[in-house]
Amino acid sequence: MQGVGVHFFARSSFEIGIKSENDFASIFISYARLVEPPNRSSLWRDRVPWVRYNYYDYSINCGEEYVPYIADQKYWCGVCGDPLNGAQSHLYGGNYVRRYIISRKYPKGYKFISVTVETNVRQGLFEFFICPHEFSSVAVNHSCFENHRLKIKGFGDVYYVINPGVHKLRLVIPTDFRCNHCVLKWRFLTANYSRYCYSHPVRRMCIHPEEYINCANIAIGTNWTSSSLKHL
């Protein structure tokens, strides 16, 4: 069952651009986005008022093309997909999370979280995590997600992407799991590497594949009814 919420899907026109290095040029149109539940910078697509628009919400990939490779680094990305050492726009207090808005509510008795991902990337894998984040005024961290991996119905811990398009999955809500403020995390580790590995320092994508991360604010296991359609 889909989480309770008003959903409006407005597909954007994906950027097509040209970039060159050492007299090489390529067209880049790679994109991926957590559509349902909407990621933190996609709430404008749900017609949520007074939120900031991110017209590039399909390219939250940790600043891949511009981040240098650093050996022995534990984390490659910010918690919710921002460049690790840059502005954390998708964490609480950042540009797109000025206030904590729950976009989907899953009442007591729900067994699954329905998710939809859209991408034109042909290969890779999806993983999902959840942080039972009761302190909504504090940013989430890596360790909270690492302790709460979600199972994907019919697939286990990992869903392998073998074709581009729209992927609809169901995440298993753990037994007796409850939280008034949860942060759902989607991670997409692709098979894409950079073609431009002539510069110094070496780009991260020359060593590590492109990665997308989105976070969404949800709530699970309260006494809300399916007739409740309002955001908190």
TrEMBL record:
UniProt-listed Pfam families: LPMO_10 (PF03067)
Domain called Chitin-binding type-4: residue spans: 74-218
InterPro entries reported for this sequence: Cellulose/chitin-bd_N
Protein name: Chitin-binding type-4 domain-containing protein
Biological source species: Lottia gigantea (Giant owl limpet)
Lineage: Eukaryota, Metazoa, Spiralia, Lophotrochozoa, Mollusca
